[in-house]
């Protein structure tokens, strides 16, 4: 098992953001995590990758600011629940965040070099891989990233994450704001990344497109997992389609 998330609960003041969430992924798998806006998908990715601070001195958990967090995350069999985000990234669990978030005053190449800080000795080889996957980034390598289109910035965000040589890449809402043709091309690249051996946990609003790529899926609603199964099973379930997928 590559990733095991066990009974994660996250609360903020009186709001329950995640409520006893568990999921699991196999090596090399492409897994979809879908659900309505505000379901807790981004919070779950942030908890998995160490961007919500863990503090498990008691069974109930403690407060970090106004955030309370309990549960456990295992990655490659290791309990990473208490590790800082940079140590989790060092183990190969990488987040490509929502809204792309390039370093807007830096060039494409500088952004990619920043992504390679964990593996500077492999920079040239990994850069070649990213440029082969996204030729547009090679064409624009000297361009300031803040002047690029939304689709180009999303390519850059994924490329920067790949520079960290992930074993598991979590991608949060990659198609937001993209035209249909650009979105389709981007998802072809996401499939290619997975076929190259990198496991992917994909959070995406376009459920049909996400499930067309993934083998299995989880549906998150109001902070809880409400359904799971193969992508085809979930798409065929009329109750799931109407209640949670908007299909």
What does this structure look like?
This protein is an alpha/beta fold. It has a domain at 1-90 and 201-247: Rossmann fold (3-Layer(aba) Sandwich). The protein contains ten helices and eleven strands. It has helices spanning 41-48, 85-90, 108-115, 123-133, 135-139, 150-162, 180-195, 207-213, 231-236, 238-245, and strands spanning 3-12, 15-25, 30-34, 63-64, 67-75, 78-79, 93-96, 168-172, 199-203, 216-221, 224-230. Helix 3 runs parallel beside helix 6 (150-162). The protein is globular and about 45 Å long.
Features:
5-stranded antiparallel β-sheet, 247 residues, 36% helix, 27% strand, 6-stranded mixed β-sheet, globular, Rossmann fold, alpha/beta, 10 helices
What strand order characterises the main sheet?
Answer: 7-8-9-3-10-11
Task: Assign the CATH architecture of one domain.
Answer: 3-Layer(aba) Sandwich
Largest sheet: 6 strands, mixed
> How many helical elements?
10
Name the helicity range. Answer: 25-40%
Find the CATH topology of one domain: Rossmann fold
Average pLDDT figure: 90
Name of the top-level CATH class of one domain: Alpha Beta
User: How would the global form be characterised?
Assistant: globular
Radius of gyration: 18 Å
Gap from first CA to last CA: 32 Å
CATH superfamily of one domain: P-loop containing nucleotide triphosphate hydrolases
Q: Give the ordered list of helices and strands.
A: EEEHEEEHEHHHHEHEHEEHH
Query: In percent terms, what proportion of residues is strand?
Result: 25-35%
**Tally of DSSP β-strands:** 11
The structural class is: alpha/beta
Poorly predicted ranges (pLDDT <50, ≥5 residues)?
A: 55-64
